[in-house]
Specification:
By secondary structure, this protein is of the alpha/beta class. It has helices at about 45-60, 60-65, 70-85, 85-95, 100-120, 155-170, 185-195, 210-220, 235-245, 270-280, 295-315, 330-350, 385, 400-410, 425-435; strands spanning about 5-10, 10-15, 15-20, 25-30, 35-40, 130, 135-145, 145-150, 175-180, 205, 225-230, 250-255, 260, 290-295, 350-355, 375, 395-400, 415-420, 440, 460, 475-485. A seven-stranded mixed beta sheet has the order 15-16-17-14-13-18-19, with helices on both faces.
Length: about 500
């Protein structure tokens, strides 16, 4: 089955499809062949203005007056539609960003759970009563933060829509969603699901466009109360500068250079399964991958040899082919970046033991395909160990003992996730408690769910996605104090 070419020449604002005021219609490129496969309306600053106005009106209107139970019903309908249309969405996203269909299919099938989970929270966002004295009744309520600007990455657009939209709607917020300019298609399709689910006009607005114009205007808009952004930390820093014009709230998830630690007592067969998958899943284009593989010296050579053999066996192919295990890079710029870092690694003295080249022959020659690449003899000071490449490149770094493993693991500006493999329960607790990361996986990897908080420290971001914790970032706490005695002392009486 192959998704047909896609055309959407209007934006979704205020519950309607409208022509851009100052935008254009832009081609979206299929990274498997470098050819246009979709045409999508891109907006401009004036389109953001009217989307924000629509979101503000919805917040003041019926949506703002809905109970949590009513919002929950809409979230459940959205979840059911996500589940029902998951195959169609998977086909579209595979065409747009090049992930293998088996990966997008699994991702899409899971997205309904975010809407079901947060539907269950929508009528449970409670405050607390505060005990002081009998003449005062004090309590808190949690109110929606307001209009949310959701700025999406290109590597997992539909997943990030779910992560940001579901808790925002549960909290009673409204949204203006700005998809990545490279992968705008599934966001447009999500608008159709919102209409069908009965989301009131203006609650969800989608304006595709360029980051430098549309994204920047959204970030600095006085009518936007919060920005939720996933992407480069340098972009997050610019968003924060623009957003301080009205003291916006922020949640940022900004990538990682995650340590994945293999101790000599690990169940090596299982650890190698995880090490290979954590290096090359999603074409290496995921913030949560173990791109720094730290291996104890006693098993280092064995792991390097096994990893290289496994990398060579990965089936790189057309993303809609059911047998494909790794597809292309999502766009030409990312392919160039990945290849440039492979050159940097070789120039720094790392040993290339697998991959390292663009695939230029045969049926894949016109696409943005890069071989699964393994570097050994990597030192943590090298750029391939310090910079987030976001491609199918893993750097294997040796260590002597726990102390050195922790020293290397924490010697990074990032702090999103980490993993470790050991049969020693004491070591598992010791090491995991000292790794500086928002999530640490022990004897597993990349276990991400709707009810587990996810986010980073350092330049990996601020705030959290998922779990009950995320509701804190879409609400404000209001304190109300009611005097019960009917009296107030005249402090200036003679």
């Amino acid at each position: 089955m192959r998704a047909e070419n896609y055309v959407q020449e209007k934006l979704f604002i205020g519950g309607e499809w409208v022509a851009p005021l100052d935008g254009e219609v832009v081609a979206s490129i299929d990274p498997s062949n470098g050819k246009e496969w979709a045409r999508i309306a891109f907006g401009g600053p004036r389109d953001i203005d009217r989307a924000v106005a629509a979101a503000q009106a919805a917040l003041r209107g019926p949506w703002g007056r809905m109970s949590g139970t009513e919002r929950a019903a809409i979230l459940r309908r959205l979840g059911a539609l996500m589940d029902e249309r998951s195959e169609h969405l998977a086909q579209l996203e595979t065409r747009d960003n090049g992930l293998p269909i088996r990966d997008t299919r699994a991702t899409m099938k899971a997205q309904a759970q975010w809407f079901y989970y947060f539907a269950g929270m929508a009528d449970k966002i409670d405050g607390r009563a505060i005990s002081n004295d009998k003449n005062v009744h004090a309590f808190t309520t949690r109110v929606p933060v307001g209009v949310v600007g959701a700025i999406l990455p290109w590597n997992a657009p539909m997943q990030m829509i779910s992560w940001k939209t579901a808790p925002a709607l549960a909290a009673g917020c409204t949204l203006v969603i700005k998809p990545a300019e490279q992968t705008p298609v599934t966001a447009a399709e999500f608008a159709r699901l919102a209409i069908e689910a009965g989301v009131p006009p203006g609650v969800i607005n989608i304006v595709s466009g360029y980051g430098a114009s549309v994204g920047a205007h959204l970030a600095g808009h006085l009518g936007v109360d919060k920005i939720s952004f996933t992407g480069e930390h340098s972009t997050a820093q610019e968003i924060m500068k623009k957003g301080m014009v009205n003291m916006k709230r922020f949640t940022f998830e900004c990538g990682g250079k995650s340590p994945h630690i293999l101790f000599e007592d690990a169940d090596l067969a299982q650890a190698m399964n995880a090490a290979t998958h954590s290096a090359f899943a999603f074409c290496g284009q995921s913030c949560a991958l173990g791109s720094r593989l730290l291996v104890q010296r006693s098993i280092y050579d064995r792991v390097v040899d096994e990893l290289a053999q496994r990398a060579r066996r990965i089936r790189v192919g057309q993303p809609l082919d059911e047998a494909t295990q790794m597809g292309p890079q999502a766009h030409a710029e990312q392919m160039k970046k990945t290849l440039s870092y492979i050159d940097i690694g070789s120039g720094e003295g790392a040993q290339l033991v697998a991959g390292g080249k663009r695939i230029t022959e045969g049926a894949l020659g016109d696409g943005y395909f890069v071989e699964p690449t393994v570097f050994s003899n990597v030192h943590n000071s090298m750029r391939v160990a310090r910079d987030e490449i976001f491609g199918p490149v893993v750097s294997v770094i040796p260590f002597k003992d726990e102390e050195e493993a922790l020293e290397i693991a924490n010697d990074t500006r990032y702090g999103l996730v980490a993993g470790l493999w050991t049969r020693d329960v004491g070591r598992a607790h010791r090491v995991s408690s000292q790794i500086q990361a928002g999530t640490v996986w022990v004897n597993t990897y990349r276990y991400i769910r709707w009810n587990i908080p996810y986010g980073g420290i350092g330049i990996s971001g601020m705030g959290r996605e998922n779990g009950p914790e995320v509701i804190d970032y879409y609400t404000e706490t209001r304190a109300t104090v009611i005097g019960l005695s009917g009296e107030y002392t005249d402090y200036y009486a003679k």
